């Protein structure tokens, strides 16, 4: 049966002629379109994109199966990354580059008279995340596969991802993100992989034959979870891992119940409602809202994933459930999946019949938890009442975990009732609530923060008591970003300059960038580096002109702040600097300062009033400045609409200055800061999150640090911070605040920005914008000074690139693998003998 082997070779071939034939075949037989121009059924670029994606997916599929087979046969320890968000972005070019197929595919497309760039842009992006936490999960998937680690992502297949943002009259307007409209060519729908998820109902207890107390969760309203699998290729294309996302499907029970009653409409309605569960990503990463649908989403994907993991464990491996922690590690991406802890307990107790102590030991050794924020308002707590109604069996287990835990605490600290109250998993004040972060800590063997300062603050502030109770549990693992997407893919010009200088090994070993250091003193290299930056700015300018009709001057400094809009990230401080510059230029039109183009972008949570008003302020300030001829040759402001992964990939390579200006102690890590450093931008930033480590790596002379330290901020508020002191002490700041507060930028509605003025001056300026203003302006003039000398600027920028190797997510993932998961690489053997046997 050699024809089967030929078939395999054909589907795996990247011979250009074979690719062309495959493209045509896919267009005809999978998409159902005619490659010859016909009327009235037009063949569009999207059709060709879909065909292309399928041809590529075909060529990842065997490697993917080989990878899975290798893990299974090797019976290796594996890690499951549970995350409510995977902010992947577009896949086509990334996978082509990782697989090493780009040139062949590009040639095939061109020889067929098409343009790869046009096809590439037809792909909708997978925006299944809010921001940093979701994008980190996507970088981790890339690194796990590149490091040949047996790692699996588990999440939700939202039908609507992060909303699409448009700006109308300066205001943010949200529209649903219909990314699946034209289908998703990357996923495999596993119509046979289903798990049943229980909700509501009640719990019955009885004694089993041995007199053990047993629980049954009865009369539940169930939803089915159906799997969709997406192959995740690592760099080099050897290891291809799997991301499994769950979609909600109605059970057949509904059919029985209502169809038999003859109520067809009701039956379909109930069916639809149960499938709503996985419809939409929650777009608010600011405040925990305690919404029932959110808890249902969390439990739905957690229960499906754990059932799936246990099934995989029983099929492979040792079969003894006690061995679970030796073969499986599960990482909780923030508290969102932390209901996994009582859920695993439920499966072990109720389904496997284990006794409590055994089950608890297995659970703690299996889980670990990453915290991503110190903001108290973002910490999840669920009303006991809600849990009681929705997941009654889990609430009982949480109570029991709490009982055991608090008993241990009182044994260790007899009489410290206040400690017991503080660390209880149940917050008894003002309506009883379950504290999910505490549950995650108690049920994990490792808890990590995402940058040095963050991990330190975690242990001295929000989790202080727990750090004392479990000193060995808390560790730091600083975040990273994947150099494949964030340099090789998004910045081809810089990537190729680097490769010409030091070879291509940096792509899978970013520490190699160190070899660029000597070139920072090579004038010819600096000229080339500047030419690359200039070319990137020109292509951004062209794109912005085409899409928005806005002119950006590529000779200006591109001063870029892109991230979610949040008070703590202080986009206001940025805009206050812009207004100050505007005032200085108006007062002195001949002022000698380098031209700046200030670019901001980011989404505000739909319910976050102040953040939305900040967007409006940025746009109103931009209108005023951009239409004032006396300043417009020196200063330009642009708010980039709909900031997402694709736009980030366009903005980051062109940035000269990276704005990382959160109040010290508030940004857990930041990852945009790393991406911009890697792409040769200089950072202006506070000593917050990973900025601190960026400074350590690049050197203090190659970064612009300003503002109060976390400790000084703490002191400031402890002593009683009065923003009015700063208002009166600085005339320029006063002028800015008065202009904003009195309608200079909103003549038709002078009170529009009063809420911002009030937040700062009457509400205590929670994020110390006023206190850091002066120091920010000093740093900004240092930036101007350096920018006047392109060679000196380029030298520092090159040093930033050369010293950014630490911020690869490969390094991060290797730390998780060795310090938490204890998983090791599984090197692909390239052995396809199994398949050959089958073919023969
Ligand atoms: C919180 C919530 C609250 C409930 C509703 C939905 C929702 C969605 C997301 C979040 C988490 C926000 C936390 C977050 O994204 N943290 C960011 O994590 C990055 C990766 O570690 C880090 O670089 C950023 O500094 C940090 O803000």
UniProtKB/TrEMBL annotation:
Pfam families assigned to the protein according to its UniProt record, in alphabetical order: Phosphorylase
Reactions accelerated catalytically: [(1->4)-alpha-D-glucosyl](n) + phosphate = [(1->4)-alpha-D-glucosyl](n-1) + alpha-D-glucose 1-phosphate
Identification of the protein by name: Alpha-1,4 glucan phosphorylase
Keywords linked to the UniProt accession: Carbohydrate metabolism, Glycogen metabolism, Glycosyltransferase, Pyridoxal phosphate, Transferase
Cofactors that this protein relies on: pyridoxal 5'-phosphate
Gene Ontology CC: one annotated term: cytoplasm
Chain positions found as N6-(pyridoxal phosphate)lysine: 675
Organism annotation: Candidatus Methylumidiphilus alinenensis
Family: Belongs to the glycogen phosphorylase family.
CDD domains: GT35_Glycogen_Phosphorylase
GO MF annotations in UniProt: glycogen phosphorylase activity; pyridoxal phosphate binding
